[in-house]
Description:
By secondary structure, the chain is of the alpha+beta class. The chain has four helices and nine strands. The chain is globular, with a radius of gyration of 16 Å. InterPro entries: AraC_E-bd, Cass2, Reg_factor_effector_dom_sf, YobU-like_regulator. Residues 18-177 form the AraC effector-binding domain. It comes from Paenibacillus plantiphilus.
Amino acid sequence: MMGLTIAIRKGSVDTMEINQTQVHLASMILAGVEARTDNRREAGPDGCIPGLWQTFMNAELSELAGVQPPQHTYVLYTDYESDVNGAYTVRIGHEWESESAAIKAGLTPSALPASKYIVFKATGGSVQQVVIEAWHYIWAWFESSSLVRTYTGDFERYDGAGFDPQHAVVEICIAIQ
Length: 177
């Protein structure tokens, strides 16, 4: 287990703190709304993730039978074509009690395997700004890190209760070898 807290001054966020730790997480079933995209598309005006968030909010998935309490919101990045530069599937949703419960609700589930993760916890401003800056930090961090990403499934986790989009706290979990 390692821990590190870094304060970053960048962009419109006065100070963003990133705390990172290594953990081993159990397997879980995630399901929700999804799209296929890549980071180049998401950096431009044709990015689909903002619209996917709107679809997720309108779907009210947390009210469906089979969602695991607490109703944390997850943004799963999976089915990577290659690495940070390739296409991937992004899914915004919740943890489900089983694949069959998600399928019964009309959703495509992803079985995220048990794995070792490095968790980056970012705080310090609006959710959009914190997430963008945290991902930029993570990509740069892995360029010089001895840890190796597995690209089996990475995710953002947001607390389901009391989430404040103007004062975001987000955990970004990256699967590592």
